[in-house]
Amino acid sequence: MTNKECQWGGEERGILIVLSGPSGVGKGTVCSALRSMSKDLVYSVSATTRLPREGEIDGVNYFFKTREQFLSMIDNEELLEWAEYVGNYYGTPKAFVEQTLASGKDIILEIEVQGALKVKEKFPEGVFIFLLPPSIDELQNRITNRGTESEETIRKRMTAAVEEISLSEHYDYIIVNDKVEAACNRIRSIMVAEHCKKERYLPKIKKWIEEVL
Ligand SMILES: Nc1nc2c(ncn2[C@@H]2O[C@H](COP(=O)(O)OP(=O)(O)O)[C@@H](O)[C@H]2O)c(=O)[nH]1
Ligand SMILES: Nc1ncnc2c1ncn2[C@@H]1O[C@H](COP(=O)(O)OP(=O)(O)O)[C@@H](O)[C@H]1O
């Protein structure tokens, strides 16, 4: 059913979903699987000063920026949020998120916890999901086996993981990424439930009640 056919829908904004979790938990993997399952879900491409990994494409995985370019994005208020993580800057381009939500489409931001908390201040109605590994040993295996990080970076990311997991209490949902498909299905169930929240329908219902009474 389209919004036009539904008396109670229409004109709603899309839902903003934030996905966080420690490095190596599988955020990228889960996000790309989700995007292929849910064609209407829009992915927010972040800006970063981190160097591209092999196979990463500018404008697809990230907008790769110099430090100067990133700092000028901050000065020009182009970012919804930004954070420093293990020596690099990461930030969410603001205009794209706002345009996507205004067009009624859902958008997913794959960002770390400090940035997520800033987004929560601006979008308290957003849906905040924290991805956990089945165990810390499995997290270490995943990040090591991915083969993209030096030993030192793995150590820093594992240290950051402790603080990140301690901040999971600020999220609405916790999903254990045991199997990618199962994790995606749980996220899709959350999105279905969020679309059924009464807050999305009450304005239209109240308006109609006023008209008929
Ligand atoms: N605050 C913030 N964090 C981001 C953004 N983009 C990516 N990140 C996070 O930065 C961290 C490092 O990302 P990356 O270097 O790609 O490594 P990964 O942890 O292996 O995915 C991850 O927790 C990402 O979710 C962003 O726009 N803002
Ligand atoms: N559910 C899973 N089971 C086993 N391996 C996984 C799972 N999810 C992701 N991985 C693997 O773990 C590694 C880290 O995943 P990635 O998506 O890059 O994590 P993140 O984006 O959180 O840093 C990758 O090699 C990926 O193939």
TrEMBL record:
It catalyses: GMP + ATP = GDP + ADP. CDD domains: GMPK. HAMAP family: Guanylate_kinase (MF_00328). Essential for recycling GMP and indirectly, cGMP. PANTHER family: GUANYLATE KINASE, GUANYLATE KINASE-RELATED. It is an enzyme of class 2 (transferase). InterPro entries: GK/Ca_channel_bsu, Guanylate_kin-like_dom, Guanylate_kinase, Guanylate_kinase_CS, P-loop_NTPase. Belongs to the guanylate kinase family. ATP binds at residues 21-28. This is Guanylate kinase. It is found in: Cytoplasm. One of its GO terms (molecular function) is GMP kinase activity. Its EC number is 2.7.4.8. It comes from the Bacteria. Residues 14-192 form the Guanylate kinase-like domain. Keywords: ATP-binding, Cytoplasm, Kinase, Nucleotide-binding, Transferase.
